[in-house]
Specification:
CATH architecture: 3-Layer(aba) Sandwich
Number of helices: 8
Oligomer: single chain
Distance between the termini: 30 Å
Radius of gyration: 19 Å
Strand content: 5-15%
Largest sheet: 4 strands, mixed
CATH class: Alpha Beta
Structural class: alpha+beta
Shape: globular
Number of strands: 4
Length: 219
C-alpha cells in the first residue's frame, strides 16, 4: 500500500463514536488503495466529564452539531474512575485473538454510549466483546488485564501525545514518498478523503517519474 491511515481513538469518546461512519466510509472507498488501522489514545481524568450532568451537556452539544436524531447515554459514567481501561484494553486484547477489525470496540462503544452499560467494569466489557467476536470472556478479560496489553496501550497513547494534539479522533496519513498529514478532532470523511486522493496522485507521479528516469543519481 502507498498510503497508511492510522486512527487514534478512545473507545468511550463521544466524538470517536460520531466519526465512525466517516471511518467506515473511508475504509470502503479506499479498499485496496490504502492501509487502515486503529490505535488507542487513552484519556485521563482531564479528558473525562466530572459528572453525569456535565457528560449530558457535552452529549447535547456534540449530538446537535452532528445533527443526531438521538442523544448519547451517560449511564456508563462512574465518577470514581479516572481512566476507563476496561473498554480500551479489552478491545486491544481482542487483537491477540485474531480480532483486528473494528467490531469489538464498536460493540463496547455502542453498549456504553447508546445503552448506558457500565463498560468501565472489566467483566462487562469482556462479556460484550466476547459475544460479538465469539471469544471466551474470561480468557479475554485475563489477556486485557495483562501487563503487555496495558504497555501497548500506553505506548500508542504516547505516540498520540507526541503528535502534539489533544483531540480524539486523530487521523495520521502517511505516504510511501514521505508525505504526512494529521487531522485532529475532525469527524467527517471529506477532508481526509481529499488528502488521500492528493497523496495517491503524488505517489503515482513519483512512480511514473521513476519508470522514465530510474532512481536518484548517486553522482
Amino acid at each position: 500500500m502507498n498510503i497508511k491511515v492510522t486512527y487514534y481513538l478512545e473507545v468511550i469518546s463521544s466524538w470517536c463514536y460520531w466519526t465512525e461512519p466517516a471511518w467506515a466510509e473511508l475504509k470502503q472507498r479506499y479498499t485496496g488503495r490504502a492501509e487502515f488501522g486503529w490505535k488507542l489514545a487513552l484519556m485521563d481524568s482531564s479528558g473525562l466529564p466530572v459528572s453525569r450532568n456535565q457528560c449530558d451537556w457535552f452529549y447535547r452539544r456534540s449530538g446537535s452539531i452532528v445533527r443526531s436524531p438521538f442523544m448519547l447515554n451517560s449511564g456508563w459514567f462512574e465518577p470514581e474512575l479516572k481512566e476507563y481501561l476496561a473498554p480500551n484494553l479489552v478491545a486491544e486484547a481482542a487483537k491477540d485473538f485474531g480480532v483486528t477489525d473494528d467490531r469489538v470496540r464498536l460493540a463496547i462503544a455502542h453498549a456504553g454510549l447508546r445503552e448506558g452499560r457500565k463498560v468501565g467494569r472489566w467483566e462487562e466489557s469482556a462479556a460484550i466483546a466476547a459475544a460479538v467476536a465469539g471469544l471466551d470472556a474470561e480468557a479475554l478479560r485475563k489477556k486485557a488485564q495483562s501487563p503487555e496489553i496495558e504497555k501497548r496501550a500506553r505506548a500508542t497513547t504516547a505516540e498520540f501525545h507526541a503528535l502534539q494534539v489533544n483531540q480524539r479522533p486523530t487521523f495520521v496519513l502517511e505516504s510511501n514518498i514521505g508525505d504526512r498529514a494529521v487531522f485532529s478532532g475532525l469527524a467527517s470523511a471529506a477532508p481526509i478523503a481529499a488528502t488521500i486522493e492528493a497523496m495517491l496522485n503524488d505517489s503515482a507521479a513519483y512512480a511514473t517519474h521513476a519508470a522514465h528516469f530510474g532512481g536518484v543519481p548517486t553522482n
